[in-house]
Structures are given as structure tokens and as C-alpha cells.
TrEMBL record:
This is Unannotated protein. InterPro entries: Rv2466c-like (IPR053977), Thioredoxin-like_sf (IPR036249). Pfam families: Rv2466c-like.
Length: 210
């Protein structure tokens, strides 16, 4: 009996610590369930660009900087393909969220070097060359997940086989082993339930990244 592999789209801004823990969980799930993940970018700067109430000034500067990581990932994809984009996304996420390096230009440069990508990928992070690609990826996530969600977004088969978008799961610390698999099975059940829209719980602890 052949095993059917389910393809999942996962949109993430690598600068988001909560999205990072979800990405790490999804990596774990890939070792336990027959899924293949297509790693795609969102951008927090785009997500918040039409906020009715402007964020605090210091947060505005950080939001603007999230363009750098998203651009670099799309530049890596254009230069070297999807796997290179995934590797760079995870390198940026690790340096930003686990190692807590807040100098994003330095993070991008170090991540590009670590992944063996050409210097042009780093240079592209500070230009608008890949802005259209970043925005198209982000808007695809929002079209699937809806306008009242953030990062990350899972795109997966729904009750009729068509793709549905789910925000999250927002979880910290990253579930491992059987716990990761059980969480995935529960999310599959929710995604395939007709009429399911939302399930939410208050966050009572700070995010823990590993």
C-alpha cells in the first residue's frame, strides 16, 4: 500500500519568535508524519503597514527591518532554489531568536555566509529587487488565512480537499516527540472539520526559543 505524502505550505517571518517555535515544531513533525513542507515567507512590516494605530516608535524600526530577512530568503530562492531558501530562513531564525542577535544586517550577512550563498543574496536584502516576490508570498498567506491573522500560517487540505489557512499553532516551548505528532494530528482534525474557524487561549508565559 502506497503512502500518500501531504504537502503543507508554511508562511513565516523568520524574525518572529513565536513563529520560530512553530517552524521548529513542524520540522519535528516531518520526521514523524508523511508531510512535505513548502517553506514560504511572510513579512511583519507588510502585516502592520495599514495599522490604524501606529506601533511605538522603537517597534516601527524593528518592523521595518523585517524586510531584510524576507528579501534575503526570496533572493536565495531565486538564486539557488527552495532548499537554499529554507536553509537561510532557518539560519536567520536561529541567529535572531535563539542566539538573540538583534543586529539584523549582521545576522543576514552571517546567515548568507553560513549557508554558502553568494554575497548578492545579502546585498539584495537592502534593495527593493525582491519586494514584489515578498509581497506576493505574504499576500498569498493572507488570502488563505484571512485578514485578521498574523504569522505563521499553515496551508493544508481542508474538508473538501481544497486548501485552508490556519494561523498558528502558537506554542512554546516547541513540542517534541510524540507530543509534536499528537499536536499535528489535532490540527489536521480541526482543518478537516467543516465550519471550524477559531480556537484561542490567552498567552500566560513568554516565548522560549530553541
Amino acid at each position: 500500500m502506497s503512502v500518500v505524502t501531504t504537502t503543507i505550505d508554511f508562511w513565516i517571518d523568520p524574525m518572529s519568535p513565536w513563529a520560530w517555535t512553530t517552524a521548529r515544531w513542524l520540522e519535528e513533525v516531518q520526521t514523524m508524519r508523511d508531510i512535505k513542507v513548502s517553506w514560504r515567507v511572510m513579512c511583519l512590516a507588510i502585516l502592520h503597514e495599514n495599522d490604524e494605530t501606529p506601533p511605538p516608535e522603537q517597534f516601527q524600526a524593528w518592523l521595518k527591518s523585517t524586510w531584510l530577512g524576507a528579501r534575503a530568503v526570496e533572493a536565495a530562492r531565486a538564486d539557488s532554489g527552495d532548499e537554499a531558501a529554507r536553509e537561510l530562513l532557518f539560519a536567520i531564525g536561529r541567529m535572531s531568536n535563539v542566539e538573540r542577535n538583534r543586529d539584523l544586517p549582521a545576522v543576514i550577512a552571517a546567515a548568507v555566509s553560513e549557508c554558502g550563498l553568494p554575497a548578492g543574496v545579502n546585498e539584495a536584502s537592502t534593495t527593493t529587487e525582491f519586494d514584489a516576490a515578498v509581497r506576493a508570498s505574504h499576500e498569498a498567506a493572507m488570502a488563505l488565512g484571512g485578514k485578521d491573522v498574523g504569522t505563521p500560517i499553515l496551508g493544508m487540505p481542508g474538508p473538501d480537499g481544497a486548501a485552508v489557512g490556519l494561523f498558528g499553532p502558537v506554542v512554546s516551548p516547541t513540542p517534541r516527540g510524540d507530543a509534536a505528532g499528537r499536536l499535528w494530528d489535532g490540527i489536521v482534525l480541526l482543518a478537516q472539520t467543516p465550519g471550524f474557524y477559531e480556537l484561542k487561549k490567552e498567552r500566560t508565559a513568554k516565548v522560549w526559543c530553541d
